[in-house]
Structure formats: structure tokens, C-alpha cells
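Model it.
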Amino acid sequence: MTLPERAHPATPEPSAATGRRLPRLTQARAPLTCEVAVTNEFGVAGTVSIPAERDLTVYVDKRELVTLMTLGGHPEWLVLGYLLNQRLVASVDDIESLTVDWDVGAASVKTRHGIHRIEDRTAHKVVTTGCGQGSVFGHLMDDVDSIRLPPDAVLRQSSLYDIVNTIRLRDTTYKVAGSVHACALFVGGELQFFVEDVGRHNAVDTIAGWMAMQDRLPDGEKVFYTTGRLTSEMVIKSAQMGVPVVISRSGITQMGLEVAQRVGLCAIGRATHKRFLCYSHAERIVFDAVPTPLGVAPVAAVA
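Modeled.
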């Protein structure tokens, strides 16, 4: 596997519309897959693609913070989202620059004013569940009750089916190589950003980083989609991103459900084709496309 050459800095101009001071970011993309030799059940040799997992050690103001295992498709947005979702920074405007160098497997973050009490705030780590094992800092649950999601946000059932179908038809690394999770952000029913990584927590952090770098998103309700299960970490991060509805191809954990109920998040799981289970806040769903059971005559949809 050949890694790309050392990335060169890319310096966004301050936003003319908002006056924000966006950080300078490199654009250190890396191959998502690599070819390996295999032998099948008949003893026949061949080649297949597998995900190109790699380690990325994050340094903040020259202090080592964490090592993330990632595909490396959007490492700068991943690091930004990680810092935001861990609430180590309040905004990307607090960061002066972020440089990723795959030659040494490192991301160097330079903040504008430092991170207050970073040693105390990162002392307690919790190992998260699932593939692409990650860690979060112990204070992630501290302010969950302060999260406020849009009270009137709803998702039409027909839009839910469209979202699931959009993901199903998309060309993905998973279809080529397997062993990865995908996450996507939809706004007003339209796909805004799609990302795959070895862990669902990396994918949601990458979307958070991408969102933070946008001046504004289109009007409409935000919906988050993930192929991974809805753990407490995934639910909290989605809520922190201001997303009131989350759809998963998998299920939900007990703690994930408890957090979703507390913050008013509509958690939908087992979403495949026309099937799904809503675990919390079903009042956010507009049932306008109820499937007709076999042998039952169609009924009028709910307006």
C-alpha cells in the first residue's frame, strides 16, 4: 500500500458572510482500500480489497491526546469533530491550524488560546463499545440534560424510506471491501455528506467536523443515518450536533435509549427497506407511507 505524499497546507479565507476565523487545514487524503492476496475454500489464489486501516495520533498544542484508528478519508474533519464532540473546544474557530502528516501518522492541532484544564478534562477515559474501538473522556455525559433539540422537528415516513434507499444504492467501500461503518447527514431529505470509517464513532465525528466548517446548511430538518448500533456515545454526539432524528440499520443499547428519551431524540433502528422500529419519541414521525400487510386491502395514508 502506498501512502500519499506529505500534505500541503490549505488555508481557507475567513468567511465573508459570518466573519468566522476558520482554521487552516491540510488535505491529507489516503487510500481507503488496499489489495491483498487470499486463498479461497477451493485452494484458489486471488486478490481482494480490504479497508486500509491506519493509526493517527492527535497532538494538541504539542501535547499527545489520543490515537485514532481510521481509514483516513477525511482526517482533518475527523480530528475537528473529535475535539468538538469531546467538548474540548467550543468551536472550530478556537483552532488556528490542523496539519495531518501520514508519513509519521500524526495530526498536529494548534489552538488559538489553548484548552483550559486539558490535563484534568482528559484524565478519565472510557473505552467505547464496538469495532474500531475508541475512547471518550469521562465528562461526555455531564451536560446531556442541557442539550436542546428542535421541538417541532419531524420526519415523514416516506422520507425515511427515501433515506434508506439512497444509502442502499450508493457505491460504498463496504460493498467493495466490507468491514467498515457508514454515516450520513441528510437535511430536508437531501444527502449532504456521507463518510465511511472503521468505527461508527469516527464516522460521526467526521460529519461533525464537516458540519462545523460550513457557513450554513440548507434549510430543513437534520436526520443522521448510521449503519452502526445506537450506543449512548452515538446518541449523545448526534444530539450535540443538533440532530433530532437518528436512523440506524442496526439496533440500540439500553443506555443509548435512555439518553435518546432524555434529550428528545427520535431513535429509529432496524431500518431496512420498508421495515423499522422507533425506540423513542415516535411523535416525531409522520406516518404517511404505512406499508400494506400481505392480504390486507390498502388504506388511506395519514396526511
